[in-house]
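batch job 7 of whatever, protein = ABC-2 type transport system ATP-binding protein
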Amino acid sequence: MSQEKIIEVKNLSKKFGSFTAVDNISFDVYKGEIFGFLGANGAGKTTAMKMLIGISRPTSGEVTVAGYDVKTAAEMVKKSIGYMSQRFSMYDDLTIKENITFFGGIYGLSRNKIKEKTAQLVSELGLEDAVDKLVGDLPLGWKQKLSFSVALLHEPKIVFLDEPTGGVDPITRRQFWEMIYAEAHKGTTIFVTTHYMDEAEYCDRVSIMVEGHIEALDTPKNLKQQFNVESMNDVFLKLARNVE
């Protein structure tokens, strides 16, 4: 992890009528960092992420992602990032190969590059014998791994993962995080939202959102020391009680 800021957020807010979903949050993310964006369901994590990736316009505040202002250069932001939604985003009625080819085309890769990336991805995931299998026939864990790999096809500077391990078994969750570690080691920044507090232990730093606010931001080790607890789940429970 370097000290180069790749995401800069200052006084970011999002309102829907009289409801404030994200309330004046500020933070930075560094190149090559695994940054955990934690909180319970409904805390504002996904709303904030949508503003960061340029698909939802902030009500107020400033956001720079990969050097681009999300308000004035949203399309450049989208070209610089990878994104994996909490709902599996690949096409069940297409084969693995067809999905890779389709998304490679969306990312603007040449035919030769798509062919090269397909062979590399299939080999890394050990899917050589399933490349012509419909994605809809794959187990959820394999779908998630494939979706993550496809989000990296165009070698983005940052990958945004929205609840990537929801619904998968513990072994698959661990394997997924090993893929995240490997990618971060290459210098890719990983921005991940999750409500699984144990996954905070895998991050370099974490922020914890409660009711639209960032109530804590530091390394997991420092947060546990600060709140004098043994787990990130206990940190979250303490914060939630304090807000109440």
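notes: Residues 32-56+73-243 form a domain with the Rossmann fold fold (CATH 3.40.50.300).
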